[in-house]
Amino acid sequence: MATFSEQFDAERRAGVRRTALLVAFGSISFALVDPIFNPESLARLLVVRAGLAVLSLGIWGLTLIEFLCRSGLLKVYGYALAFFAAVGVALFTLFTGGSKSPYWAMELVVLFGTSFLLRFTLKEAAISGAVTLAIYDILMLVSGEAVFTISFIASNAGIALGAIVSAVAAGYMHSLLQKEFHARQSLAAANAELEKSVSELAFKKEQAEVKFLQDKLWFAHDLHDTVGSQLAQMSVLAGKTDERSTTHLAELAKGTLENVRNFAHVLKGEQRVDDLNSQLWKLGQSFRALGRYEVNHVAEENPARVSDLALLHIDRILSEWTANVIRHSGADRVAFGTRSRSGHVCVWFYQNLGGFSWRGSATKGGLRSIALRAQNIGALVTVRRRGKGAYFLLKMNTGI
After folding, report:
1. Which stretches in the chain have pLDDT values below 50?
2. Whole-model pTM?
């Protein structure tokens, strides 16, 4: 983004060009009224007009050359144009009757026009006004103009007042330019922040869509692992007629139906998935049914609530872990529960044998599945050795 100085120089350069063309046009166009004011000075008036036009167009030509448009040079061009215009109007006044000529009022046009178009500051406009008044007085007095005449005093008062007004107006305009520039900068910064926010929002939306696709893959994986496995067992048991097989078949059918309902409820956005206490209670019932474990379920009175999607993943994580405990640990005593604190929840599981340490990353097997599921719900999973046993810990933000 350009600085205020760079923007100001660009505007002053355009102002110098416009002023140069206007001075040239004005000096030529007013030649039509010269015969009316003073036919005897027609030749001198034409010479002044031609000179003023040539000098103005020369400055205009300089502004077309890039390396001649530095900040300091543009200021010089502005002063030169104001000086040439002031001298030209003073000479027109002198040649058409002195202070009695209406031409002196054109000095006011010079003051206001140059201050506005050349983007003069308060200081620059004050200098230009003082020089304009001095040029006018010097030419009038040198020509023998009487000081104490109404026309001389009135013209001086008019030019002085014009110089003051144009200086104040120039200072005010310069201040407005600065405020406008800073306002545009603030607006640009605000727009950039807005675009950044919109970009971040779009990015988060894309992340949410990717996560949704990942969750659908997890659902497919879960359906394959749980329901598919249960259906396979049911197909085997369906051909058996003994009481034990029939009872087991009924339990499998009931469990399969419950799993399918859980998946359907989550996909429809319904709150029908078992909460943490219910999951752990069922886990305790499963261990007790095996008849070889001392089970301690430490139920938390008001455990933190997590999303249905997270509950599904936690259920599968606990299934993976307890399967490993049953198959490999040799433990005969287990305990589990939850601890909720300020937006966090920790699901813990203790086994008295088969202890080892794990930091939550793996490349294959059941531990890899646990790690991936934990990562998918933003959880941290670790195992800490405790004597011959171990603590399995699953920590996550509740987000609800």
Report:
1. 270-271
2. 0.46
